[in-house]
Amino acid sequence: MPPLEGGSRIGMDVSDAALVRHFPQLEAALSHTLDRRRMLKLLGLALASGGVAGCDPGTPDRGFVSAVRAAQGVVPGLPNIYATAHMRDGYAEGILVTHQMGRPIKIEGNPDHPSSLGATDVTAQALVYDFYDPDRATGPLHRGMPTSWPDLAAAMQAMRATATAPHPDGTQAGEGLRILTGTITSPTLGRAIEQVLATFPGAIWHQWDAIGRESVTQGLDLAYGPSIAIVAHPGQADVLLALDSDLLDSAPGHLAYARAFAARRNPARGTMNRLYAVEPTPSLTGVAADHRFIATPAMMNEVIGRLSAQLLQNEAPSGGPDWLTPVVADLRAHHGRAFVHLGPDYPAEAQAAVQAMNEALGGRGAVFDIVESPCYPPAPPTGTLAALMDDMERGAVRALLILDVNPVCQSPRFAAALKHVPNSIALSDRPHETALAAQWHVPLAHAMEEWGDARGHDGTVALIQPQAVPLYGGMNALSALHACLGQPSRPAMDMLRDAWRDRLPTPRDWHDALAAGVIAGTVSRRVDAPLRQAAMRVASPASFPRAANEAVLLLRPDPYLWDGRGANNPWLQELPRPLSKVVWDNPLLVPPDMAQAMNLRNGDRVILTRGTTRAQLPIWIQPGQATGCVVGLLGWGRRHAGETGNGVGTDLYPLRDMTGPVQIEALRTPATPIACTEHHATAVGTAPSDVARHGTLAQFRDRPDFLGGGATPHDALYHRDPGAPVAWGMSIDLNACIGCNACVSACQVENNIPVVGRDEVLRQREMHWLRIDRLYEGTEHAPDTFFQPMLCMHCEQAPCETVCPVGATTHDSEGLNVMVYNRCIGTKFCSNNCPYKVRRFNYFAFAEHESRPPISRNPDVSVRARGVMEKCTFCVQRIAQARIVADRDGMGEQVVTACQAACPAQAISFGNINDPAAEVTRRKASPLTYAALPEQGTHPRVTYEARILNRNPAIPS
Amino acid sequence: MTGKTGAAVDDAALIFPAETPHSLTERICAITLHEGESGWTPLWWWLGLGFALALLCMGVISVAWLFYAGLGIWGIDWPVAWGFDILNYVWWIAIASGGTFISALFFLLRAPWRTSLNRLAESLTLCAALCAAIFPILHLGRPWFFYWLFPYPNTMGLWAQFRSPLVWDFFAILAYVLCSILFWYFGLLPDLATLRDRAQQRWQQVFYGVLALGFRGSGRQWRHYQPVYGVMAALMAPLVVSVHSIVGMDFAGGATPGWHSTQFPPFFVFGAALSGFAVVLMAVILLRPAMGLHPYITARHIDTLGRLLLTSSLCVAYAYVMDAFSTYYGPDPADRTMFAFRLHGLYAPVYWGTIVLNIGFPQLLWWRAIRLDLPVVWLICLGVLIGMWLERFLIIVSSLARTQLPSAWGQYTPTLWEWSLLCGSIGLFLTAFLLLLRFMPMLAMAEMRAMLAHRP
């Protein structure tokens, strides 16, 4: 693989501090007074190092040399694809990384990986930026200041000596040594940590995730015993009840779950399932539901209590919301095909009770499986963060190793506790809050630069292989642990190879497993553990007494920044949140009635007080949120995320340390403008939309094409036959779309779409070629929500083409509406004339001002200059690539657009609409197919399949 | 500004009875050639020029920054991709119509009153067309390629795209500006010859001599001159209609709600006439006392222009009514949403301001007393100019802010750079007009002499 140049920022900063940061050794040299002799020495050093810097540094694992001759298998202009995995809170999602000339430029899902099935989520798409991020760690730090590797090694040695020295009171070796990690599913890393623990028997391993799922694990402990995980099969369920659930958007395995769920949503292609959602604040799962019921957190507890009473104790329904009885009846009527899922924000008792309900509904083996937990260690002897912090405050922790978690940022108490620890080392791939607060910071290589393994939600092991030489240096986590042990460092690849030698004995097996990205047959075994009776005991519904101005605060992870790790990624910052469409900020989500009562409008600032902590932030009115319930998004307001993420939004972690209701006090300060990509569509419409068409299953059964029509005009005068042998078209199934924005992110990465920043979004100049429109219908308090991906429709009769005075946008023979950037003079008439408003204009040189290095861009897609219009091309570069392959192999083009590839729900299909066998042609023949804005006579090549809701007739809407 | 015209003069007179061809020539030439006791470069001219140049400087800075930084310095955005740029263009080109209506259309109609006004009106046309012409170039994302609109042979083998209203617009504007210059210049030839002959200073003799193109006033020259002038007028009259129709088609050719209307071509001609007459009236009311033109521009002229203003205001009112009617009679819900937004939304003050200024106040002109009350007429005209500007804001911005898909609704707030460019274009207009006032005869002397000669 050719060497990579990164760090484009080196040499641009000239201040001493920045210089020292890049060249830590300079600090010692600069601290002396400069005499002539020393000056000449330094100059000589500079001259010599100029030559040295030209050489490839190599890695600790393997020597890399400059590519004087082209690397084997790398053909200029052709992509190379390597499998690896993306880690999401410890769980692997298999990905394929596309390289161009050795540069990773695009992520796709790994079809062989059960947690991906070929799809990706937004965070996986955004990995490319993280990889090239100029703000990543470039060297070790000591108390936040750059230091050298030898100094670090010496410190580690000293720390090891402290830890191993027998304590005067005769305690074990390692007493006082603590290791803090996140959830770990990697068998190799887990074993390495256990090795450390074995060497230092007194040491304790603490596991903690900022956005944890401990309650789910503990609930399963209660229900079945330790080390149990649940794998759902939503595709097998006829009725699903989602209780404040994250099943489709962030639970481990959510991509696979979304795929299976969505496969049962289109009545034209099979029998529909039915999803009920009960939740305090709208989620993707709730929006996807046929019936969405709004419940405050207090009501949620009541609902769980009543559900367990009816389903487990067979009590007669009494009280509770009206819809509960028909929902229970529906679940019961589908015995063995019904599934209940509870989100991670509810206590272990509730989780156990829900699992008991699932057992009572008889779905085990069909709609869910109980398997061995993929997490490491298999048994839970680990401590919690709270226990660790107690020990730290007591002074019982003498050495602390923090592996790739950021507790200083995410658990405010931790920062103070850390001051009591004499030796602390933080390992992370960027100098974040914890790295700067710990005594030593060891830079880790990025996940795309190291070897490793990790399990998916079902236990399947994915192999992680480096995609490049570490751009900024950095150690492997495995090597770092070895270094801590004082053992001679072994190449991580060898450690990994050894770990799997039993299963992959021959080099051929190893190679095949690397190529596939997964080790076959590693899926977790099913467990026959019976349900424990303890699970039936559900905690009594807690009551949430509220005084005036008091509200229940729900703190949820930001869907894209997650616990804050994505904060320095501008792609994630600028990706519209699925429902609010807010970017670059985390306003407090407030229900409409509270906003009305407090006379608040979007952007007005409030003070949020909980216990002794308070936060000041703007608000955003969220239709469909439960009365008296406000939602804050975590992961914002980072202090040391990097240049992009520092200080963006408000840090709400301090509020999480407190409990109880919050007081909200409106401030009289001027409102904060909130960057939002759908400012004027927050209005709730009462009339059914003709653009995002929808109806009920009953209507569909009456007349399947009751919503269709308009896709193909019946009038011969206007009928346009796609004449060419190949006519590209797309069909988007609104039944499947869950609004997750993975397609938007994939499109941005694939097509070099620039990020414009908060100020430009405030001026409505965002550049996404593909957007997901969100429509509300009904009342503001309980609207029906619809998502509709909106992209260039590639109209047969394109209004944009006729108005361009220079013919910069024209039609090609295959029906693509092509944009000739070089010809565009920027009249913007095409955008004005586009009824779908899918064209974006480069008001400034947005691409030029991006912080990522140019080598991270897709070389097959032109980067657009200032003053030029751009829009969706149907991934014309992929069509061209597919055509070459098709010409070579003599088969039809197999084109998969970037949005289509990323979609977990397979809502998008693309292909030749003149090919009767193509998936897109079959989908377009669906009775639900319609064209958006048919009255415009544009004959779009993109058509939609209208959304059908499987309403329960027993529940009045 | 005097409130009333001279009481001794018959209101119906087009020219004071005491005036002779000689006195007229003397007076007008004295202004232009800066000679004699009525020698002319008054203080107000210098102050006006200073003010105009200051505005022009602001515009130049604004354009320089625009070219350096890009279109992003303006407030235009994703849904509202046109703003002040196109708005000001349409506004200026409409203002430019007045001169052509008066000098060409009413020449063909043999309206005797146009003779005193045509030079002044045509000069206004010229300056306004100049201002209008810069905006289509400035509004481009890559203005240095503006010539790609022109179908010229090139190595790229590319041609302009003739289906685009912007190409029609390019040709319409080009033809209109060129013909306006020619018509103005051709009408000026006999007067330039007069100036050449009367000039005392060498530079004036050379300057006007070169410009006069050897016009000697021979019978043969007059025999050719008059038919050509007539033919040019016959060309100009339809041209003024076509240019505004095509400006209307820039919008009508679009599929945007609020633009896609078959009545736009005549609607834009009505609007152009309204603003054209208004600006001529404003200039006349100010210049008559300032330049001592009372004997030639009388109450009759003001009265006639007032009637024309009222007529065109009524035409515009008809267009507004039809706009509302076709929206609510038509089947398109997007049109209705957009129109409701005009009536009640963010820009509702703009809509109602348009109605009041363009239709409401001009109704006062039904009364002759008001038509002759110069300050009131002047204010009504100013209102019309502002009203027409607001109308264009409404057509462009409120339509784009409320297109078919609610997800693409937006709004537009002009920035300092757009305001400074508007001021700059006003500065350009005033600078050019003040220079013409100073160096060109503001009355068509030859035609006036002919009229005086034929006076009964």
UniProtKB/TrEMBL annotation, chain A:
Q: Which domain of life is it from?
A: Bacteria
Domain (4Fe-4S ferredoxin-type) ranges: 728-758, 783-814, 815-844
For this protein, the record's Pfam families field holds:
Fer4, Fer4_11
Q: What name goes with this protein?
A: 4Fe-4S dicluster domain-containing protein
What stretch or stretches form a coiled coil here?
A: none
InterPro entries (alphabetical): 4Fe4S_Fe-S-bd, Asp_de-COase-like_dom_sf, TAT_signal
Family annotation (SUPFAM superfamilies)? 4Fe-4S ferredoxins, ADC-like, Formate dehydrogenase/DMSO reductase, domains 1-3
Automatic annotation (TrEMBL), chain B:
* Transmembrane domains' residue ranges: 43-69, 89-111, 123-146, 166-188, 228-247, 267-287, 308-330, 350-369, 376-399, 419-439
Keywords, sorted A to Z:
Cell membrane, Membrane, Transmembrane, Transmembrane helix
InterPro entries the record matches: NrfD-like
Q: Provide the protein's localization.
A: Cell membrane
Give the UniProt family note.
Belongs to the NrfD family.
Write down the superkingdom of origin: Bacteria
Entry membrane topology: Multi-pass membrane protein
Per the UniProt record, the source organism is Acetobacter garciniae
Name this protein carries in UniProt = Polysulfide reductase NrfD
